[in-house]
Structure to design on (575 residues):
């Protein structure tokens, strides 16, 4: 019997944004062109709160040595802190076991690990990999490279004018030739939240494993990999208020056991001779060389920090920001929002008639407003909407309604300049 | 000149009213310029007679910096000997990558306003693309870019 579906409880106390902002020194320290910083580019990389900064400094001043190697005090401390970070990630995404969590250098590295470790073992000539029109280049190019090498081909799930996946077409694309589905949880360019759980279930009815790119999801919503039932889940530390150079690949243990290592080196082996190497057990089999130890520990601290705020409160505040930003930007004449999915994360991608996104980005910066401009490493999405680039405002829980107003006022100013 | 001033005093004017916009009939040389990463895309066509750039025009879709740079470029080289145009390409490139001193910049005349672009490192490519495209046209190359080896930042 299925458990009844529970609606998430509304947050008991709303987010105190002004208090939260004091945790992020950079928000107060930087004044681009003498203006207060309005940072609306967290989808590219989020800022780091004081507790994470402090944790990294503490590690470097009290715990650092190489891990899994020495018997001395510092090596044991570093190893314990690193493995504790792994358990924090496990709890954060509700993985069944900590050995299902592999530290990578980021989402891109995680996808490449699966493309090599899984793809080269289980995908062959004539096979197909299904992905979607919403994917970031990081979830396209590794699969393209694999296809070129083994003679497989990509099948792409189309999107509608709102930027939502055609789920019926997705189901039609699944066949006995499909060896893997690779889909994004949340579109980085448009903000669309995909029905991942439903899509995983469809693939599993045909025994097809599913990889989910969660880089844009984990900073904004509670993610439960057991509930999604996905086979792989990838994300990056720096988009969730942790350091750069660290990321996570979650994978089901049974799959990890069957996969080939991706990189060879120290720590991923049990024994080495020139005749034969015996690989280490998971997760270490996939963590060759000295990993980004402080990155992992910093990511663990970021998870702790998010826990003190609460993913439900974060999601509620960001949703309110999204609705306000969408309504405010829509009032601007000559401005078109790309990506109007019913289920959306706090991302507003837009184009301004008569103003190229790069000119807009440069001039918004002069008003202190930081937005991403360009194709967002999602050129197929841009092509689908017939634009070379967009401006993208992406929000985190430290953003305010006043910052939305500042964005709108700055866009209006640029429009007046170009009028 | 700070970038905002640059927009207000120069770029927006050329963006609204680009000079020599269109295509040269009976062109002897032409080339396509594309920055795939930002989407700036333009064509330069020209007619050389007696080693002189008798006519030049450009068209395409681009940001205002690229369009203004193209517009001012066509004005600067029209009627000039081909060798002078070639030399100007190199001097402009040197200036926007911040490698020219003040005297060298001043020698570029009205084009010297683009010296301010060096403070917008992410936009240097936009200003340089028309010049690379002119260079490609003069040297019978079909296409120009500012990526890879042609990246103005790579030469720094």
């Amino acid at each position: 019997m299925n458990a009844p579906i529970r609606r998430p409880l509304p947050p008991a106390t709303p987010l105190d944004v002004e208090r939260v902002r004091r945790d992020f020194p950079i928000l107060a320290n930087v004044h681009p062109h003498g203006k207060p910083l309005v940072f609306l580019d967290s989808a590219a990389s989020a800022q780091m709160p004081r507790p994470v900064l402090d944790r990294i400094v503490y590690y470097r001043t009290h715990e650092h040595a190489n891990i899994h190697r020495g018997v001395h005090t510092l090596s044991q401390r570093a190893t314990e802190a690193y493995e504790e970070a792994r358990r924090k990630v496990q709890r954060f995404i509700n993985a069944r076991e900590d050995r299902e969590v592999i530290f990578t250098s980021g989402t891109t590295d995680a996808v490449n690990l699966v493309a090599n470790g899984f793809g080269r073992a289980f995908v062959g000539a004539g096979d197909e990999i299904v992905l979607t029109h919403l994917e970031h280049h990081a979830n396209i190019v590794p699969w393209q490279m694999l296809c070129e090498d083994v003679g497989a081909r990509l099948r792409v799930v189309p999107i509608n004018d709102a930027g939502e996946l055609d789920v019926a077409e997705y189901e039609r694309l699944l066949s006995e030739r499909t060896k893997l589905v690779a889909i994004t949880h949340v579109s980085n360019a448009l903000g669309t939240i995909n029905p991942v759980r439903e899509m995983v279930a469809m693939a599993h009815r045909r025994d097809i494993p599913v990889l989910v790119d969660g880089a844009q999801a984990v900073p904004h919503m509670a993610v439960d990999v057991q509930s999604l039932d996905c086979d792989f889940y990838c994300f990056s530390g720096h988009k969730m208020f942790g350091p750069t150079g660290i990321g996570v690949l979650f994978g089901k243990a049974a799959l990890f056991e069957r996969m080939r290592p991706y990189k060879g080196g120290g720590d991923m082996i049990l024994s080495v001779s020139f005749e034969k190497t015996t690989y280490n057990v998971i997760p270490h089999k996939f963590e060759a060389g000295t990993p980004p130890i402080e990155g992992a520990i910093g990511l663990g601290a970021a998870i702790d920090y998010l826990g003190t705020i609460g993913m439900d409160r974060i999601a509620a505040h960001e949703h309110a920001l999204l609705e306000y930003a969408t309504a405010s930007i829509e009032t601007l004449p000559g401005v078109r929002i790309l990506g109007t999915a019913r289920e959306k994360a706090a991302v507003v991608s837009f184009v301004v008639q008569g103003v190229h996104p790069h000119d807009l980005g440069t001039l918004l910066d002069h008003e202190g407003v930081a937005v991403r401009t360009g194709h967002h490493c999602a050129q197929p999405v841009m092509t689908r909407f017939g634009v070379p680039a967009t401006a993208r405002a992406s929000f985190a829980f430290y953003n305010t309604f006043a910052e939305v107003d500042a964005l709108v006022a700055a866009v209006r100013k640029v429009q007046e300049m170009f009028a | 000149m700070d970038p905002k001033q640059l927009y207000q005093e120069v770029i927006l004017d050329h963006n609204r009213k680009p000079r020599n916009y269109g295509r040269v009939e009976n062109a002897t040389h032409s080339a396509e310029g594309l920055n795939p990463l930002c989407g700036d895309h333009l064509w330069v066509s020209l007619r050389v007679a007696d080693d002189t750039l008798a006519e030049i025009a450009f068209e395409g879709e681009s940001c205002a910096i690229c369009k203004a740079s193209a517009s001012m470029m066509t004005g600067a080289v029209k009627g000039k000997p081909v060798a002078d145009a070639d030399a100007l390409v190199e001097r402009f490139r040197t200036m926007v990558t911040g490698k020219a001193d003040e005297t060298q910049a001043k020698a570029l005349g009205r084009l010297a306003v683009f010296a301010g672009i060096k403070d917008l490192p992410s936009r240097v490519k936009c200003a340089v693309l028309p010049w690379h495209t002119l260079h490609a046209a003069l040297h019978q190359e079909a296409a120009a870019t500012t990526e890879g080896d042609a990246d103005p930042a790579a030469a720094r």
Remarks:
- The longest strand of chain B covers residues 40-49.
